Amino acid sequence: MAASIVQRCFSAAVKVKCRTPLFTARRCLLSASYTDTKLWEGMEKDPQNLALLANFMDITYDKKLPVSSLTISRFVDNISSKEEVDQAEYYLYKFRHSPNCWYLRDWTVHSWVRQCIQYGVRDKALHTLQNKVQFGIFPDDFTFNLLIDSYIKDEDFKSACAVVAEVMLQESFDLSSTQILSLYAIGGYLATKPTLSTAEERALGAALLILGLKRSDTIGMSAQLLGNTLIGEVEMQRGVHGVFRGMPLSWRRGYMGRALAVMEEVAADAGDAKLSQDTLDRLSQVLQDLSSTSSDSSGEESAGEEEPAGEEEPTKESGGVDEEDAAERAKLPEYVSRFKDLRGLLETQGKVEPSSFQALVSALAARSLAASETADLEDYQGRVRTWEAEKRHLILREKEMRERSEKERQERLAARAAAQQADNRAAG
What we know:
The chain is mostly helical.
């Protein structure tokens, strides 16, 4: 039953591997001690027969009763094959749509992602993560790091960036290690020169902007510039409503102008911050493409002036832009002129970094990732101990409830037997 419903209800996530000869060495990634499963596997075990557990959950749901968070946790923890990962996906969905949906434990989410990585079905983890409302999968930073790292090691930067987009939506860029891994993933993906969809531009742009605001060095300023550039391109093409669809961004127009403001800030700063050559080239290309598109659109409008009023259809490109969006587009020639002046100024000041954005991030990872790991591992060890204590408490409470339920059942049976004996005496 579970398998058939899964096939009908869930679409498999597609894993696209982006390989490039520029990134063949597996360096600047999480260490073996960070990804080691020894600590996780060392937690107290609660062995279960998954067939019996699945049958119990099916019966419970058929009776319109809730399944406990401990039950779904036991199922996920005892996965031992790819097939059982599929079953767990189904029961995670069922649990999310049950009255107990708010009580999915953090260690269950962590265990789910680890099991998907272990059995080679990371696409399942990514699918449930991208559909978190339907599955309730909201990982912590450490768990995000494990999933991003697993994709980076296989040079699947596209999928790694899909995870980074979820980190951005969950606003979980608190750990330095997560920031570094996310920047590495985005840099690796953009280095492959992909043709980005609007959704990818919006997500990667937002991630880069948020990450860049956490730093004031060359990497941070370059990330801000690139993030504003990607979001600005979406704004110019789709209008501001195309930017803020599900994004944790301030509702203000003018992202292309803010990209130029980053250039002005670097030019006016007396510090060592620079802007990387490739991010400036990206902004230059976007402005050039937008100018070309704007010219083509103007020509089409002139050619169609004789068409009767009322027959003109808004194009998909316009996305129903309003007057303020049109005013922002009208600033494009000004933006192009300002960009040329600012780039010349930066070059004169020696504030253009010749190294690529990805090279800068790779150097950052080699320099800082190990130190970030130490704090993460200490926090993770404490978290595992807390999870163990919570799990023991739940098991104890479950045992007490069962004992109390059994005692109450025995008391009811005894009372019923006593009443039956009294009736028999009265009848005699």
